[in-house]
Amino acid sequence: MLQSKYIIKSNALIADQTYRLDLLGDSGAMERGGQFADVAIDGFYLRRPLAVTEWNEEGISLIYKVIGEGTRKLSSMTPGAELDILTGLGNGFDPLKCSKRALIVCGGIGASPTFTLAKDLIAAGRQMNVILGFNSAEECILVDEYKALGAKVEVTTVDGSAGTKGFVTALLGGMSEGCDHFYTCGPKVMMKAVCESLADIDGEASMEERMGCGCGICYGCTCHTTDGPARVCADGPVFPKDKIIW
Amino acid sequence: MVTEVNVCGLKFRNPVIPASGTFGFGTEMYGCYDLNILGGIALKGSTSEPRYGNESPRIAECPAGLINSVGLQNPGIDALVSTKAPALRNIYNGVIIANISGFSIDAYVESCAKAAACPEIDLIEVNVSCPNVHGGGLAFGTSAASAAEVTREVRKVTGSKPVSVKLSPNVTDIVEIARACEDAGADALTLINTVLGMRIDIARRRSIVAAGYGGYSGPGIFPIALRMVHQVTGAVKIPVIGCGGVSSARDVVEMMMAGAAAVQVGSANLRNPMVCKKIIDELPALMQELGLEDLKGLRI
């Protein structure tokens, strides 16, 4: 965990209620895709845990959706402003679990934390199928970016305004062929359906819970696992599918 | 300039102690900063048996703090004394405080006896004030008679190890309960625990925390804590460890001017896990600004 100040380079609307926040600052604590940052926002007591989309020597990038007053305030911040952020939080996805072809299944803003994982898998010579599910075309994010990595990408939307009409689960059969490991992030009901549908493939899911500290000291975000109680922020957020008790 | 304080014969290199439940078992923070700067560390509340605690959501944000309903999730007293406390002692040389809760007098006694026998634990904080479990904790802390009974029975098995009873603000007269605990043999008091509270999700028309109610803490309760510490320290002779909304070096000094012998920092760790280091770093300059040579004896 690293606490540091970051300067906003850009904070741009990229889809419906969805912003990409590029931050200049120390990215040294980031180790794996799927880790998150905890952003202090003036006027709000608790930090906002947000997935880190990607990072480089210059800084880190987060994609977030406005879902409450805190993220609304964040979306109003402009380049040059400073943010106090904890980075390098959580365990992240394990790219070494995949030895041939990975299946990445995301819902909505869940496309963000798997993006660095996808980059790392491609860099390691793995092949990849990606299913990105959204409510509508206006919510689509990172579709071109995943395609640019060389992944086979399919999009689903609930209203049919982009890609295949329906839920991500409709495409699991065809897209999971040849895959030896899956990674999923999105609404809990979607991840549960993905884990149950892909019964023959090992995989991992990134869980979400209301958090207090974000760094494992308050036990405010505990979930049930087959190993007993686990803190989503520090023991997760990524858990192997066979450990999760839905 | 002297920042060292003494509580129940235990030397604290400064009065700053992360409060129970806001700093895990200490080891979680290893590597984030040098923990040895801390005067003491209060470990997460423990019970005789392991507990999952309450279902999630357990956290609800408030304008000046948060509500938690963790519900005493902990691995049990046996894990505390055999694993958690020794692991912290390996990396920390200050005062280690075990926080013990229970659902019966017998359970308090059993857990406190084990904590007293644990060489790594310096001080036992008896929690009769957790608002997040039914039939335990707070149930013992809301009457002078039951708080005194827990104190008296626990004190029989703790030998020379000091006991601080952690009191609840959710009572009519905290002074009466404080006096009863002192008379029953408490070596110190810690106050206050969280204030019972609630937040409602108005879109879903239900409580934000799954348990319904939870403990409200943070800067919003600081004035309440301060008032209660001042009242109690005016009424008892044993030292009081002040707790409740302390977030800065100024708050630490203010709490000590209310009469606290040492100060716990709770919710502020959730906002900023490094806050205790920041407070300790800022104390000397603040003391200089205020013309304070010593942090002892500041009660107004």
Written description of the protein model:
Chain A is about 15% helix and about 40% strand. Chain A has about 250 residues and is mostly beta strands. In chain A, the strands form 3 sheets. Chain A has a 7-stranded mixed beta sheet with strand order 10-9-8-7-11-12-15, sandwiched between helices. The two termini of chain A are about 30 Å apart. Chain B is of the alpha/beta class and about 300 residues long. Chain B contains 9 helices and 16 strands. Chain B has an 8-stranded parallel beta sheet with strand order 3-16-15-10-9-8-7-4. Chain B has a 4-stranded antiparallel beta sheet with strand order 5-6-14-11, with no helix packed on it. Chain B has helices at about 75-90, 105-115, 140, 145-155, 175-185, 220-235, 250-255, 270, 275-290; strands at about 5, 10, 15-20, 40, 60, 65-70, 95-100, 125, 165, 190, 195, 200, 205, 215, 240-245, 260-265. Chain B is globular, with a radius of gyration of 18 Å. Chains A and B meet through β13 of A and β5, β6 and α8 of B.
